[in-house]
Design a protein that fits this description.
Blueprint (H helix, E strand, L loop, with lengths): L6 H16 L3 H5 L5 H17 L2 H21 L8 H18 L3 H16 L3 H13 L1 H7 L3 H4 L1 H11 L4 H7 L7 H12 L1 H15 L15 H14 L23 H6 L15 H12 L4 H24 L2 H14 L7 H21 L2 H5 L1 H9 L5 H16 L8 H22 L2 H5 L4 H27 L4 H14 L4 H14 L2 H8 L54
Helix pairs in contact: 1-3, 3-4, 3-5, 4-5, 5-6, 5-7, 7-11, 10-13, 12-18, 13-17, 14-18, 17-19, 18-19, 19-22, 21-22, 21-23, 22-25, 23-25, 25-26, 25-27, 26-27
Pfam families: SPG48, TPR_AP5Z1_C
Protein name: AP-5 complex subunit zeta-1
Organism: Populus alba x Populus x berolinensis
Length: 572
């Protein structure tokens, strides 16, 4: 440190007196944030401590700064001034010099988030400064206080939901930190999907109660985490569904939203208390979604409808890279339950569902045994295939995954058999209605025609899954031949369905190439060959057709001349 008469000493002494005098001035003592010189003095003292690198100076400064922090926090609820920037400057001092003065910054950080940011997250200046602070200290926070961001992720989601795309870049840098704790990984997913609804809820609070800045809208509730976690795991392994919560909240006016409704309390909380319970059938939720459909979208809502898919991209990418199999396995039933339950915007719903299904298939690709572990919820979703277009698409993808990954692998024969039986049931239930034909439905509404087309598409996937599953588990081949034979003989109006069944029956009669075409993409048996390859060296012991006739699309019966690959592959 410089000499006693140096500019540095006079400088820090002046700023230290400024902090000390603020406790004696009655106006400043009751409202420290009203004097901008205090913020300047805190920042300048912090800079001097770093420049001088003197433990004595840090020890002299710390008591005054700590007193200012405690006094500011105690006055937050009584003041209309913003304390965010002042407290952030003090927190930076605590983080940088806490080890020198033996100050644990964890309680101070939590106090700031719980008492200050919960009141000032809607202030764009404080919001930006908070994200900058978290990014500058990201490494220290994640290593020294690893549970901090996961605990307060709902508050940080409120911050980004209200401030929108202008802070997206800064928020994306800290976003992975919200997922670092096993306790936040699962609850974070539904909170991300529901970000547009969070915007609507915040806007409703602003319209009914005034500015969001300076008033805490969080409500401390009894945690429902144990019940919801048990419900999720129960669905994963027994197939029972996660309840929506029912219409357990009442509102005297269905067009108005009561701020005390569980719907509101859940969305507007500041801290993570486990898996959120979304009351999708409550009067508040129904009224909110209906009002949203009937009114123009705000700029904030439009921004969040665009941002949410991008946040999900990061969430799913990190999940596949860093998250353990147990958590991902527990996440998949949650994805299934939310596939048909989200904010009613056509483009948003498409973008989100696309990402949900892509992640689910990627998870099955990485861990095919998930299909066997989650057989109950998978079979339940197959049973809901025609409840809505979204559930039909989910069933399509599940059928593909069942066939592609052999029902979970060779060691899961019981699960594969149960899945096979569910596919059989779905096939037989729909054969009779498919015989009604597209020609008949063409006389009806266009919606009916579209439904029939969707049904035929699903049946094609079911037929393929049955053939692939039986090729992997050969004990199922006799039942598969019976099922596919019924489809091939049915001659239902959509030629794609019965022709595909006929083609697969033909493949099953070609043992040398059946497994290569219909087998799993990643055989667990080292002796199995990969799909798309044919072991022609077995021609001496097994009958091999160079190219089976039934692959030739529209060409019926045996070819009348020799053919080459040009007959099969389309010309450019």
């Amino acid at each position: 440190m410089g000499g006693e008469d140096g500019d540095g000493d006079r400088n820090w002494d002046f700023h230290l007196r400024t902090l000390s005098n603020s406790t004696r001035d009655s106006n400043l003592a009751n409202n420290p944030a009203s004097d901008p010189s205090l913020l300047h003095s805190v920042k300048r003292l912090h800079e001097l401590c770093k420049e001088e690198n003197s433990e004595d100076l840090i020890a002299r400064v710390y008591p005054q700064i700590n007193k200012l922090f405690q006094r500011s926090v105690s006055l937050l609820s009584q003041s209309t001034n913003s304390y965010g920037l002042l407290l952030l400057a003090i927190l930076q001092f605590f983080l940088d010099f806490g080890e020198v003065v033996l100050h644990d910054a964890d309680p101070s950080l939590r106090t700031f988030l719980r008492s200050c940011l919960s009141r000032e997250f809607a202030d764009p200046v404080v919001a930006e400064a908070t994200l900058d602070f978290l990014n500058v200290n990201k490494k220290k926070i994640l290593t020294s206080f690893p549970t901090l961001l996961p605990q307060f992720f709902p508050l940080l989601l409120k911050l980004i939901a209200w401030n929108g795309e202008k802070l997206e870049k800064s928020f994306m840098k800290i976003f992975p930190g919200l997922m670092m704790s096993p306790g936040s990984f699962l609850p974070l997913f539904p909170s991300l999907v529901d970000l547009p609804i969070l915007v609507v809820a915040l806007q409703k609070v602003e319209r009914s109660s005034g500015s969001l800045i300076g008033s805490s809208i969080a409500s401390i509730q009894k945690s429902t985490a144990p019940e919801m976690l048990l419900a999720l795991m129960d669905e994963a392994y027994t197939g029972s569904t996660i309840a929506d919560g029912g219409a357990d909240s009442e509102s005297e006016d269905s067009s108005a939203i009561d701020a005390a409704d569980p719907f509101f309390l859940e969305f507007l909380k500041d801290e993570n208390d486990g898996l959120p319970e979304r009351h999708w059938t409550s009067p508040a939720m129904v009224a909110t979604l209906q009002a949203t459909i009937n009114t123009p979208q705000s700029d904030r809502l439009k921004q969040m409808l665009k941002m949410t898919p991008r946040l999900l991209d990061v969430y799913f990418a990190i999940s596949l890279r860093d998250v353990n199999d147990s958590l991902i396995c527990a996440l998949i039933p949650l994805l299934m339950s939310r596939n048909d339950t989200m904010f009613p915007d056509k483009i948003f719903s498409y973008e989100v569902r696309k990402r949900l299904l892509e992640f689910m298939l990627a998870a099955f690709q990485r861990s095919p045994n998930f299909i066997a572990l989650l057989k109950k919820p998978i079979m339940d979703r197959l049973g809901e295939a025609y409840d809505s277009p979204a559930k039909t698409e989910l069933a399509l993808q599940l059928c593909w995954a069942i066939g592609e990954h052999g029902g979970g692998g060779g060691s899961h024969k019981d699960a594969a058999r149960e899945l096979f039986e569910s596919l059989e049931l779905l096939l037989y239930e729909n054969l009779s209605t498919s015989r009604l034909g597209l020609r008949e439905s063409a006389l009806r509404s266009g919606g009916e025609s579209s439904r029939k087309s969707s049904q035929s598409r699903l049946l094609c996937f079911v037929v393929t899954a049955i053939a692939k599953l039986a090729s992997y588990h050969r004990e199922l081949l006799p039942r598969a031949r019976v099922s596919l034979g019924k489809v091939a003989r049915s001659r239902i109006s959509d030629v794609r369905v019965w022709r595909r069944a006929r083609d697969y029956l033909g493949l099953m009669n070609e043992p040398a190439i059946c497994l290569s075409v219909l087998g799993p993409s990643r055989p667990s048996d080292g002796n199995m060959q990969k799909p798309g390859t044919v072991n022609w060296s077995e021609g001496g012991t097994k009958m091999i057709a160079h190219i089976p006739f039934y692959i030739l699309g529209e060409q019926e019966g045996p070819p009348f001349h020799d053919f080459s690959f040009s007959d099969i592959f389309p010309r450019r």
